[in-house]
Amino acid sequence: MTLAVFNKVTGEILDAELIIKIHGGRFMKLWQKTSFNEKYDNLQGNSLKILLHLTNDSLYNNLIPGVMEISRRYNKSKSLVSRAYSELTKNGFIVKIDGRYYLNPYFCWKGSKTEYEKMCEKISKGGE
User: Fold this and answer.
1) What does pTM read for this prediction?
2) CA-CA distances (angstroms) from residue 86 to 59, 75, 80, 83, 104?
3) Strand partners, 111
4) Which of 23, 47, 59, 101 can pair with 63 through a Cys bridge, CB separation 3.0 to 4.6 Å?
5) Spatial CA neighbour of 82 closest among 59, 55, 128, 50
6) SS3 assignment, position 61
7) What is the pLDDT of residue 109?
8) How far apart (Å, rounded) are the C-alpha atoms in residues 67 and 71?
């Protein structure tokens, strides 16, 4: 399913693809009617684009590439990606646990239900 993402602040329209897969006990969950709705609406430009890339590039259990890898992969400057990661972390879309970056499972999730519960428990304990 293809969606259009509209940024109310900039008027920018981005294409996004919504994919929900269920296979072998794995699932992907997307936020709905949570505090992320307002935070998402307030994201602008590069932070929004990077977040869309990260939702696509996240690995099983929401592990995401670091700043350097995303910078290289999408031909963006390291400082631009670093600022986007900072804004996304500040707004709760990204969490850092044990030195690794993850998409917040309360925003979206790619993995099993058991692993989802474990990750939520880590976050509730403060992560890193």
Assistant:
1) 0.72
2) 20, 18, 10, 5, 14
3) 27
4) 59
5) 50
6) helix
7) 85
8) 6
Alpha helices in the chain (DSSP H): 36-42, 45-57, 67-73, 78-90, 113-124
Cα distance between residue 59 and residue 97, in whole Å: 15
Q: Which domains does the chain have, with CATH numbers?
A: 2-124 (1.10.10.10)
**Angle at the Cα of 122 (from 121 to 128), degrees rounded to 5?**
155
Q: Containing H/E element for 19?
A: none
Q: Which residues contact 42 (CB under 8 A, 6 or more apart)?
A: 9, 91
